[in-house]
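## Example pair
The file below holds two records. Each record gives the amino-acid sequence first, followed by its structure token line.
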Amino acid sequence: MDRNDLVLAALASVPDVEYQAVHLQKLFFLIDENCADAIDGKKFNFGPNDFGPYDKAVFSAVEELARQNLVQIGRHRSRYRIFALTPEGLIKGKVLLRKLPSDVRQYIRDVVKWLLRSDFDKIVQTIYKEYPEMKRNGVYRASAE
């Protein structure tokens, strides 16, 4: 499965969802870190960045899929970009998702659900705790609790 197919499959794991940039970056980082053997190797090259692991290729893949009318990119209240599958993208993504091993499919669903119910602070803090090497260039500081 190539990078774009993995992106479609992962985004189809939980239908009718709008993703933020932090969701995409952390989702594909966690897939690369925890599922690489099952998906024929890592698909991205993440490095530490301002808010944890980042690879611009995540956005390149999503933008390529948008050009194919499989992903739509919009703005949330004019502030930040949001990403969602088009109906055609969902259909193709579901087919691709079924090609992944069942444990990988479940892992992806679990990560997506965790990302969607977690706020930005929790996501970044959790990634930093589990993958401290990704904090190296970080500018993130936890919000006051």
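Second record, same layout:
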Amino acid sequence: MGYLCSDTKLLKYLNQMKAVRVTYIAKAEYVEQNQKNIQQVMADLQKINNPNINYHACLGADGKTFTHTAFFNTEGDEKVLFDLPAFKHFQEQLKAKGLDNPPKSEQLSLVGSSKELFN
């Protein structure tokens, strides 16, 4: 069942959740390493199994544009991601070696979801 804005659970999420999208172009020679670093972040997120973090990373058709989308139930949940050693490593390496252009970060507003985002 999809959740519409009139759904009280979604309205609760809209009042406290944070959604962000970050897009950047990686250097061609760094794409493979970036994917490995992202996979390590995802493995660590799966290990901690925080139900209040939904984080996704995709690679565009050009083979070098990455889009990360994150949904956090609260700002405290965002800090959990930022404090992960694998996430810190990913960010440091990307900034030091991998960017073809600066990342663009955008705050998003959730309009609807095909699934409940947080338990």
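Notes on the second record: Strands lie at 18-25, 53-59, 65-72, 104-108. The CA atoms of residues 51 and 119 lie 6 Å apart.
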